[in-house]
Amino acid sequence: MRLSRYFLPVLKETPADAQIASHRLMLRAGMIKQQQAGIYSWLPLGFKVLKRIEQIVHEEQVRAGHIPLLMPTLQPADLWQESGRYDAYGPEMLRIKDRHGRDMLYGPTNEEMITDIFRSHVESYKSLPLTLYHIQWKFRDEVRPRFGVMRGREFLMKDGYNFDLTKEDALHAYNRHMVSYLRTYERMGLTAIPMRADSGPIGGDDTHEFLVLAETGESEVFYDAQVPDLKLGERRVDYDNRDEVAGICEEFTTLYARTDETHDEALFNAIPEERRRVGRGIEVGQIFYFGTKYSEAMGATVNTPDQGRVPVHMGSHGIGVSRLVGALIEANHDDKGIIWPEGVTPFHVGIVNLKQGDVSCDSACEALYRAFVEAGLEPLYDDRAERAGAKFATMDLIGLPWRITVGPRGIASGKVELTSRRTGESEEMTSEEAVEKVAAIYAAL
RNA sequence: CGGGGCGUAGCGCAGCCUGGUAGCGCGUCUGUUUUGGGUACAGAAGGUCGUGAGUUCGAAUCUCGCCGCCCCGACCA
Question: What is the pLDDT at residue A199?
Fold first, then answer.
């Protein structure tokens, strides 16, 4: 993409309404525009990041054997009356009437609807196990939306639902989700810690929240200093292997890590003092096992091998996709702007032409641009007639992890400069070497 | 939903107390200039001062209502 032809409305000054870093930077970098309290338009740069995150979530769900579908944002009230949540949910649920006076709602979650889909088409234990998920916009009419996309009213969420014959099977689904989530966050360059949590209104016995450590987090967290060092890394996971999956879950949940909701002072104090940590975290996902709560209420039953009929065991599992954009920035920024991890960056590399209109600089930039496109990468070429300072400031603000600087001085000796946004370190090399190096970095992801 | 604050040009703000022709910086547009970290000069465009009512000869300014937004708490992917 050529910046002169892109739509990137960056702001030099910080909008007064934004208090925390991610919100400020998303506005300044032209990623979002607020339309109402807690409701945002996603401008091209923000939309790109959102889509990258969504893509990673999809890939890891499919890898775990889960099946994508898409349910509507608007739901009929009667499904929720069946489960009893129409009255239980309260004013957080946005209720709407259509022209015929029928009661509808903008879905805050989809347990009822997915259960309806399941019961319409599944009759036999032979169809199990089954895990369906979608990534769709949700609406929760928060009393007080804040922190930009981290606490919006409208938000994009991946929500998945497992249907299993037995509790044991459902717990395997639970574990599968935990491992797939760990992998999802790691690919984004985030450390998200599973913490035992309260079940809240969704109900159920087993639940973990995934927290990204950040000072601006809304939850207080207590954890063993060794927990953030746990990594899934390169290991291959067979998601059908129950023992292996359970083993990984055990590895990641044995050390103490809890939110204030479930914090246990005595257990915490059993950790050696130098390893006790208290901090704050941003919740970016949650997994639940809730048994037959919805299947019983809504008649989602299957025939069993011994001629019986039983309600299925279920769980639901969510990742806050739009919230992750904010959480990623909270975890990756400095005073100049955003620093995207390679896994989610909107463009792979920025090309800065220090002397637009200079024949040798222009042609070197064009050649770099073509080379990156041919290598399957997306460059953002700042070809505006701005001076160097403005171009650097824009690149720093929008946070592309790699920048190539092309100027008359370097070009005279056949060199360009490759700079890491994270470390600020620069290296001189030929254009070919720069393309090769950047391509190798992304190929290794 | 309790408490606090704000609404004046695209963005950031001053003016309001003490009513009298609506201003500044940035951005935008035109021209010149400059060119390795948000450049300089000259000119231009852009505002029913959130909204409705009231007081007044006269309201951005005073009074009341409404709407919107932000912050702190209680609640949540």
Answer: 60
